[in-house]
Fold this sequence. Notes:
By secondary structure, this protein is mostly helical. It has one domain: Bacteriophage T4, Gp59, helicase assembly protein, C-terminal domain (Annexin V, domain 1), CATH 1.10.220.50. About 20% of the residues are buried. The mean pLDDT is about 90. It is globular. The longest helix is centred in the N-terminal third of the chain and has 18 residues. It contains nine helices and no strands. Helix 1 packs across helix 3 and helix 4 runs parallel beside helix 9.
Amino acid sequence: MVDYFVSNFVNNSNLWVGDIIGSTGDESYKEWSKRIESLHYYYEQDIDYILERMIANDIEFDDIFTSHDGQHPPIIKMVLSKKISVETFVILEDILSFAKRLDKDIMETVLWPKLHDRMIRYKPFLKFDTPRFKITLRKKVKEI
């Protein structure tokens, strides 16, 4: 039951509880369950995408997580445009701890605070093997 509610709130943080009941809630739960069951696979795909964008834009890995002139860094743009999953974002934050720095650097006061809050609230419900995901990240970054 908890997973059902978590899956729906992760998909839509402005959700009214009445929206969960029915096919919309069931569909959100099925999509979320699929992502969670194959979390490491989707994480690897997202890391590959991040590294491709890094190479294409000729930037360093740290630049993906760095705000310039108070703007959103590339990692936030990727999450907001659904190029990478919220789960990957939460895992990367757990490994790299970049959110506190972004709180200070990002001047925008609507999207980032909302995304940061969603990440904080979701993290306790997202179970993953941190060392495994850390090793995967390290391996993929070394490959480039």
